[in-house]
Specification:
4 helices; 16 strands; globular; alpha/beta; nine-stranded mixed β-sheet
């Protein structure tokens, strides 16, 4: 497998590693953070008669397994949109894949912060043993959300969130364009890219004080610009 390179930031006094998979890992908390997993999205589209790629749920679950095993995480926090929609519950193959994956990681605690797609899909099956909570979910000095806008977060508490699926467009020397997922790090928040294999993205324009950490070639690197910040 190709060597991967992560970037390091600090949030609420915790060292965080931004991983090329789009996850963020905190060793001190033994916790892996991901956003916008969208399991069953392809199955949902196929049930609507739209041709889409095969195997995206399995690909996403395999990546989750790799991240959990590589870092030895004992807690997985999903910042919303674990399931794509209610049609997922009618897909036997998707349901079985998720059930088997959960069985393989039964020793890992999972917390899901409800996102807009989770509201439509409904909570995961009880047998998956996932703790489902509303935003903001406070964890070790951080507020875990799906969409930070409109959420009442205590003053001074940095926010971890998703929902936006941020990407950046870079141009090469031959005028080629690269559309790449990115982390957005601000003075009081970290926005994670979409984790799912079939999610798409939206071009993100950074605000003053935000830094973009781009994922490319199994590495995470900070774009030139404002100095790196620590979310305290």
């Amino acid at each position: 497998m190709p060597e991967t390179t992560a970037a390091t930031i600090h949030v609420a006094g915790h060292e965080m590693r931004l991983l090329p998979s789009g996850a963020m890992y905190c060793a001190a908390l033994s916790t892996l953070f991901v956003a916008d997993v969208h399991l069953g999205k392809a199955a949902t589209y196929r049930r609507l008669g739209q041709p889409v790629p095969q195997g995206t749920t399995s690909q996403t679950l395999a990546q989750l397994t790799a991240d959990l095993n590589t870092h030895g995480a004992t807690h997985l926090v999903v910042l919303g949109d674990f399931l794509h929609g209610p049609q997922v519950h009618g897909s036997a193959s998707t349901g079985q894949a998720i059930k088997q994956w959960r069985q393989n990681h039964r020793g890992c605690a999972i917390t899901l912060i409800r996102g807009n797609h989770d509201d439509r899909a409904g909570d995961p099956a009880a047998e998956l043993n996932i703790d489902v909570v509303d935003e903001p979910h406070l964890l070790s000095g951080m507020a875990c959300c799906h969409d930070r806008h409109g959420v009442n977060v205590p003053p001074g508490v940095p926010v971890l969130w998703g929902h936006v699926h941020p990407v950046v467009v870079l141009r090469g020397k031959a005028h080629e364009r690269f559309r790449l997922p990115c982390f957005v790090v601000g003075a009081a928040h970290v926005l994670l890219p979409a984790y799912g294999a079939f999610t798409g993205g939206h071009v993100y324009t950074p605000c003053t004080g935000e830094s973009l950490y781009v994922i490319a070639d199994q590495s995470v690197f900070k774009l030139p610009g404002p100095a790196s910040v620590a979310c305290q």
